[in-house]
Structures are given as structure tokens and as C-alpha cells.
Design a protein that fits this description.
The complex is a heterodimer of chains A (about 240) and B (about 525). Chain A contains ten helices and eight strands. Chain A has about 240 residues and is an alpha/beta fold. In chain A, the strands form two sheets. Chain A has a six-stranded parallel sheet with strand order 3-2-1-6-7-8, sandwiched between helices. A two-stranded antiparallel sheet of chain A has the order 4-5. The longest helix of chain A is centred in the first third of the chain and has 21 residues. Chain A is globular, with a radius of gyration of 18 Å. Chain B has about 525 residues and is of the alpha/beta class. In chain B, about 50% of the residues lie in helices and about 10% in strands. In chain B, helix 7 packs parallel to helix 10, helix 8 packs antiparallel against helix 9 and helix 13 runs antiparallel to helix 14. The two termini of chain B are about 40 Å apart. In chain B, about 45% of the residues are buried. The model of chain B has no long low-confidence stretch (mean pLDDT about 90). The chains are: A alpha/beta (about 240), B alpha/beta (about 525). Strand 3 of chain A pairs parallel with strand 1 of chain B, so a sheet runs across the interface.
Chain lengths: ~240, ~525
């Protein structure tokens, strides 16, 4: 059987979030007037989303994706590279690439499991050399976004379910696999694998990791900090 | 990188669909694997954009093929065989395939090279070579020809009409069958659906609109030869260059029959020569505008200059107003689909289940509308100029943030006139300044102005060449025959060859594959030319 390394994205590999990603698309609409209008709406939505995020990640995603309503898919696909260069690439954590390279070298299949939308994920996945992507997709009618995410909406428990489904289809041994996330909302995803790693954890996840004796790593720092199970494997190579 | 998802994009409806697609099922009336097994193919034009991909596909997917004979033209002091092994086999689409097959030695066992030229009788093959090949070559695939839109008339007629006659003579001498590659645009100035069933012989685009329905290739060639001779004879009395007059005369003649340019006019005559040859087993394959590969040999491979590459490069340089039809598609087709289509037709010809004409195009199943392409061009310009480190910052901001727009030809002409008036004023001011001030202080500005004018003129010429395909006509080429042939394959064939333009996600293709392919493979080819011109 194969083994995989499952990575969350926002907060784990880079310092960006769905709100900033949407704000980029909003302020780059086809005309200045439309851009200003869309950006104003995005800004007005921020307090509501900030209040929603700690309460339910799922509802947060649903609410945020509604803001994409009316956007043309061509534009979203066409702007993704620019979003990556302008916003996402500079926010990648120092050690993120070397961690991904390390898991690849150790024979793990690298899989991104993220609530981020497919067109935004593409350049990131290519940059990291990710093998497979499990992410959200928007519904489109005649190329125009309806503001609804297609099921299954990846958040909280759904990430764990998707990982299990992926493992079954791709013949992955989850007990030999590892998962990296920064957020307590991803605890189900972390517990689905044999080697969970709290990565740049929030205080809540840090407490959970300490309780469960999970390794904690910081990709934001310059020094290398591989979790113990990877260090051992690396030494045996 | 692949997505793990239950959803797949339906480009025609513009939405995601759930569920796995039904497995491909062929009727098995044609078996490409059986057709190619122990057969020998003679490939003419294997050194071009489509030819290399076709060659790579045959070598990669049909190890059953007994032998491949590739005709290669000598170039100056480099012989055909040397050119093939140094230039063709080392090209990006073939290199990985050759390595996978086990290197040059493995290819030498499978492929032999004959030196020749379409301009010569029997394509330059000697009688000994013909004797050796006779009986062993089963099919000749002819991709050779001149694809330039408006060369001097004689330069297009030589390979595209007389060259085709030489190919026919060769096919007859070898007692083989012929697959001839032409272009969809032989239809000429037409609007709407273009049928594959229109009779080839005697065709000219204005046939339905003129009382005189007569067109004869023999008579036309007579006219052309006379025109070329007369033009050359007036070399001493007419100050304009002969090549220029041959180009203009050819364009006027093509236009008078309803063709868009010299290329389509001469290619149509080539087709007519084939159709009028008694006893010849043939199929004519007409691709639309051939573009970067989707998948094979890798996404984004491109080396074609007569593709949309000049437009993409112009878009990348910041052109904002695009004269295109709002209701029309651009008939483009990735090169790997073209190669697969040619092999499907070749199999059909070998199995004796072919039709005379096959269009290889996308718009009748999955059209990419021109206004969408204009928006893509704008987004590419935005990306490039936003991240550009050189050049004028203000100009870069303008090119990055001002959106591309669809304009009319009238608006284009008026913009051009205004632009040239402004440039005239700047030129006059600089010249006056130079006279008043004396010295050479203003020379760099004058030189820069001259360069700008030259670039603008080059862009205008390029755009004008594409107007028949983007503005003046709305083409939708019917592709019933290739879809039918594809359905007739066996299930095993369908794993190796498939005709599926209806699955192309144009946004992904144009943004992530085609534009990046052109930037990577074509832009460096343009750069030295520009440097030399400068």
C-alpha cells in the first residue's frame, strides 16, 4: 500500500485566507466601476465573515462563496496566476516547500486538502509539485458562478471523509500517512491519519496537540523542524 | 497534478457535471491497430509542426507499424538524413519519445529517411528508390506544402499545386494510397456551416453567386504562369519589386474567386488536382487553425507561426482593440487532436472505409467564441505588464489595467488613422527641432519613433491577415466524418486515438496551456527576428 501526506493550505503552507483571495478577484473585475462595487461588497462582508469563522467553518465557506455569484469562470481562471504571483506566493511560509519536498523524497504522495477553490489552488499546487488536489468547486451556469459550492463542501468533518475516500480509491494506508494543518477545525482530518502534525497551530489546536502528544512544527520560522517520524525516516534513507 | 473530484467540466453547457463518463465504445468497423500492423507509411512533411507530432504519435502509440519512411528536404549543406537525426529527432516533441523507445538506434530500426523535395518530379525520389519502395509502402501521408498566407504567387503554387501533382505521381508509382493534408479554409469567404460534402473538383467560393460556374485548375495554372512571366518581364520597366507584385496579383486573383488568401487558393487547387485523378485512393484531411498541444507529447507544445501565435503575442504586447465578430467562433484545434485525426483517417483509408474529406475543427461541437478570446488576450497582457520589470512604468500600468475590447473594422481604421496622424505630428516636431537645434540630440528619439512605426505597421499587417477568420467571415466547419470514423474504431484503438474536441475546457486550454506554450516556445523564435530587423 502507498502512503500520503495530506496538507491543509491556508495557515499551514501559506499565510493567506479565502477572504483575501476573494477580495483579489473582486477588485480585478472587468471595469473600474465593477471592481469598486465588488470590492465594497467584499469589505462590507468582512465583519459578518469574521463573526462566522470561529462559529462554523462550513457556514463561513458557504457565505464567502456566495460572494462569487455573477463572476465569469474565464476571468477567475485567467486571474489565478496573477493572484498567485501578487498575493499567494509572497505569503508562502519559509519551510513549506522543503517540508513538501521532504515528504515526497520519503515516498509520500503529496495531497492538498483545502477549502480553497480549484482555480486558485492550481498555481499553488504546481508551485509545490503537489500530486493530487482535493478542493472546493463553484457551481457555474453557462460559465457564470451561481455563488453555490458544489457538494461535498470541504470543511471540518468533510475533509476527513474525503481523505478516507481518497485513501480507499488510491490504495493509501492511512495509518502510515501524515496530515498537516494549523486549525482546530481540521482535527477530524488530523485524526484520520496515523501521523497528525499540528503545523503553525492556533492556540486551540496547540492545546489539542499537546493533549494528544502530536508533534508541533513551525513552518514560519527559518530553522528546519521536521516532525520526529519524518526525521527518523529521513535518517534511514 | 490532478484533481480528486466527482465533478467534470462540461465546456459546452458551461457547468460541472457529476458522475463518471461512459467508457468509450467503438463499433470496431475500423481497427487502427490492425490497419497499421505490418504496414509501411511514407510521410512527407514530417519536419513541420504537425508532422513532428504525428511522427511522435506513430512511434509512441503504434509499435505494430512495420516501417516508417520519412522524406526530408535538404537544407543548404545539410542533407535530409542528417537534418532528421540532428534537427527532428532532437526537437522537444520527439526527444522524450526517442528516449523512451531506447534512443536513436531504436528509431533507425523503425524509420528510414529519403531525401527529396516536393518541387521535383516524383518528389525528388530516384527510380532506384521508387523500385525499392514499390510494393512495400502502403500509404503516403502528405503534410508538405507552404502554409504562408500571402507569399508571391509562384512560391505558393510550386509546392501546393505542382507539388501535389508530384505527390500523386509518386503515390501512383508506389501503388499506394494517399492521405493529403489541406486546410478547412479552402472553403473561402463563406459564412455559417461548411459542409464536408461539397464537391471538390471545379470548386470556387463564389460559385453560388456568379452566373459563370466554371473553374478549371489547368486554365487557372495557365493564367498564373502567364501572370508570373509577364510580371518578371517588366522587371526593368516597373520600379516596384517583382515579389511584391506577384504577391499582390496573387491576392487579387484569389480574391476574385472568393478565396481569402493565396494559401487557401493554391491549397484548393491542390485538392482539385487530387480529386480529378482517376483511380487514386485518397482522403483529404482539412484541419482548421492548428494550435498548441493539449496533452501529447506534452501540454503546450507549439512551433507554428501560422497559428494564433502572432495574435497572442500582440495581445501580450498590450493591444486593446480587437476587430472580431461578437457572434463568431475562432476555429482552432490542438495539434495532438489533429495528429490523432490524421491517424484515424489513415486507418480508415487502409481499411477502405473512408470518405473523401475530413474536417478537423472544434466549433460545430464546442465553439470558442471570439469575444471570450479577446478577454483572454487582455488577461495575458494584464499578467505580463503587471509583473514587467522593464519599460515605461506608466505604459505598463495602462497595458495591465485597461481592458481589451471588441471593436469594428471601421473603428479600427479610424484608430489607425488617428494614431498615424499623431505619429506624423511627432515626427514633424522632432524633425523641426533637429533643424532648429542642429546637432544629433534628437536622433535617438527619431530612431525610436521609426522603430515604433515599424512595429505598429507589422502589427497592422498581422491583424489584417487574420481579419477574414475573425471578422469578415463566420466559419463553423462540420466534422461529421471524423466523428463517424472515430466511432468506427475498436475499443483498443480508442485508448490510443480519440477525437474529442467537445471535452476541451477552453478557459483552461487558452490560459494555462496555449498562451504559456506560445510564450515559452514561440516568443523566443520571434525575438531574434525582431532583433535582426532592428
Amino acid at each position: 500500500m502507498n502512503k500520503a501526506a495530506f496538507y491543509d493550505l491556508d495557515g499551514t503552507l501559506l499565510h493567506c485566507d479565502l477572504v483575501r483571495e476573494h477580495a483579489y478577484y473582486a477588485r480585478n473585475d472587468r471595469s473600474l466601476v465593477r471592481s469598486a462595487w465588488q470590492l465594497s461588497l467584499a469589505v462590507l462582508r468582512v465583519p459578518w465573515l469574521a463573526a462566522l469563522a470561529p462559529y462554523s467553518r462550513r457556514r463561513f465557506n458557504i457565505s464567502l462563496f456566495r460572494a462569487y455569484k455573477g463572476m465569469h469562470r474565464d476571468r477567475l481562471v485567467g486571474l489565478a496566476d496573477d493572484l498567485f504571483e501578487v498575493t499567494l506566493k509572497p505569503s508562502i511560509f519559509l519551510q513549506a516547500k522543503s517540508l513538501i519536498d521532504c515528504t515526497r523524497d520519503l515516498g509520500y504522495r503529496n495531497v492538498l486538502v483545502t477549502g480553497t477553490l480549484d482555480f486558485t489552488v492550481r498555481p499553488i499546487a504546481l508551485h509545490f509539485g503537489i500530486d493530487d488536489v482535493i478542493c472546493n468547486r463553484l457551481e457555474f451556469k453557462n460559465h457564470i458562478a451561481t455563488g453555490i459550492a458544489l457538494p461535498p463542501l470541504l470543511a471540518e468533518d468533510e475533509k476527513a471523509r474525503s481523505i478516507r475516500e481518497y485513501a480507499e480509491k488510491e490504495d493509501i494506508d492511512l495509518s502510515q500517512s501524515c496530515a498537516f494543518s494549523d486549525s482546530a477545525a481540521d482535527v477530524p482530518m488530523l485524526t484520520a491519519v496515523g501521523h497528525p502534525v499540528a503545523t503553525n497551530p492556533t492556540p486551540k489546536l496547540r492545546r489539542k496537540a499537546l493533549q494528544n502528544n502530536w508533534p508541533i512544527i513551525e513552518l514560519r520560522e527559518n530553522s528546519s523542524s521536521l516532525p520526529p517520524f519524518l526525521t527518523t525516516s529521513a535518517k534511514t534513507l | 497534478m490532478k484533481y480528486f473530484t466527482p465533478w467534470r467540466w462540461n465546456p459546452i453547457r458551461g457547468e460541472y457535471e457529476n458522475g463518471t463518463p461512459a467508457p468509450l465504445q467503438g463499433t470496431g468497423e475500423i481497427s487502427a491497430i490492425d490497419a497499421f500492423s505490418n504496414r509501411t507509411m511514407l510521410l512527407l512533411g514530417g519536419t513541420g509542426f504537425v508532422g513532428k507530432v504525428l511522427l511522435a504519435m506513430v512511434l509512441d502509440r503504434f509499435p505494430e507499424m512495420k516501417h516508417l519512411v520519412v522524406q526530408v528536404r535538404r537544407k543548404k549543406n545539410v542533407g535530409g538524413e542528417q537534418r532528421f537525426y540532428s534537427e527532428v529527432l532532437n526537437s522537444p516533441p520527439l526527444r522524450p519519445i526517442v528516449e523512451r523507445l531506447g534512443g536513436e538506434t531504436a528509431v533507425r530500426n523503425k524509420v528510414s529517411i529519403v531525401e527529396g523535395d516536393l518541387d521535383e518530379p516524383l518528389c525528388g525520389l530516384s527510380s532506384d528508390q521508387i523500385t525499392a519502395l514499390k510494393g512495400s509502402v502502403d500509404i503516403v501521408v502528405n503534410l508538405a506544402g507552404l502554409v504562408e498566407f500571402d507569399p508571391p504567387l509562384n512560391e505558393s503554387i510550386e509546392p501546393n499545386v505542382y507539388g501535389t501533382q508530384h505527390v500523386i505521381d509518386l503515390v501512383k508509382a508506389l501503388e499506394a494510397k494517399l492521405v493529403h493534408i489541406s486546410t478547412c479554409y479552402v472553403a473561402g469567404k463563406k459564412d455559417g456551416h461548411i459542409s464536408e460534402e461539397t464537391p471538390i473538383a471545379g470548386y470556387f467560393p463564389l460559385r453560388d453567386q456568379t452566373p459563370d460556374k466554371h473553374f478549371s485548375v489547368t486554365e487557372e495554372l495557365k493564367w498564373c504562369n502567364q501572370f508570373v512571366e509577364e510580371t518578371r518581364a517588366t522587371r526593368s520597366t516597373n520600379p516596384r519589386p517583382v515579389r511584391e507584385r506577384l504577391r499582390e496579383g496573387g491576392m487579387a486573383r484569389a480574391d476574385s474567386w472568393g478565396w481569402t488568401n493565396i494559401y487557401t487558393y493554391t491549397k484548393s487547387m491542390g485538392e482539385q488536382v487530387i480529386a480529378q485523378t482517376p483511380g487514386l485512393t485518397y482522403a483529404i484531411v482539412r484541419p482548421a487553425i492548428v494550435e498548441s498541444s493539449m496533452q501529447f507529447p506534452f501540454p503546450g507544445w507549439n512551433e507554428g507561426f501560422t497559428t494564433s501565435a502572432p495574435l497572442v503575442l500582440m495581445g501580450g504586447s498590450g493591444v486593446k482593440g480587437w476587430p472580431v465578430r461578437r457572434d463568431g467562433p475562432l476555429e482552432i484545434i490542438p495539434v495532438d487532436l489533429v495528429a490523432a485525426g490524421i491517424l484515424i483517417v489513415t486507418a480508415a483509408v487502409l481499411c477502405g472505409k473512408h470518405k473523401p474529406v475530413y474536417h478537423l475543427a472544434s466549433a460545430d461541437q464546442n465553439p470558442i467564441m471570439l469575444p471570450r478570446l479577446v478577454a483572454f488576450l487582455g488577461m495575458n497582457s494584464r499578467y505580463k505588464h503587471k509583473h514587467m520589470k522593464s519599460g515605461n512604468r506608466l505604459a505598463n500600468v495602462w497595458k495591465a489595467y485597461v481592458e481589451t475590447r471588441v471593436i469594428t473594422v471601421e473603428s479600427l481604421q479610424s484608430r489607425r488613422a488617428k494614431l498615424h496622424r499623431r505619429l506624423d505630428v511627432i515626427h514633424a516636431t522632432l524633425t523641426l527641432g533637429k533643424t532648429v537645434l542642429g546637432g544629433n540630440q534628437l536622433d535617438p528619439y527619431l530612431k525610436s519613433l521609426r522603430d515604433t512605426r515599424r512595429q505598429i505597421r507589422a502589427q497592422e499587417i498581422t491583424l489584417d491577415k487574420f481579419l477574414p477568420f475573425m471578422f469578415h467571415n463566420k466559419y463553423i466547419f462540420e466534422t461529421r466524418n471524423i466523428r463517424e470514423a472515430s466511432r468506427m474504431l475498436t475499443n483498443e484503438d480508442l485508448k490510443r486515438l480519440n477525437w474529442d474536441p467537445e471535452t476541451i475546457d477552453w478557459a483552461d486550454y487558452w490560459v494555462n496551456i496555449h498562451t504559456k506554450g506560445i510564450e515559452k516556445w514561440i516568443r523566443p523564435m520571434f525575438a531574434p527576428q525582431r532583433k535582426a530587423a532592428g
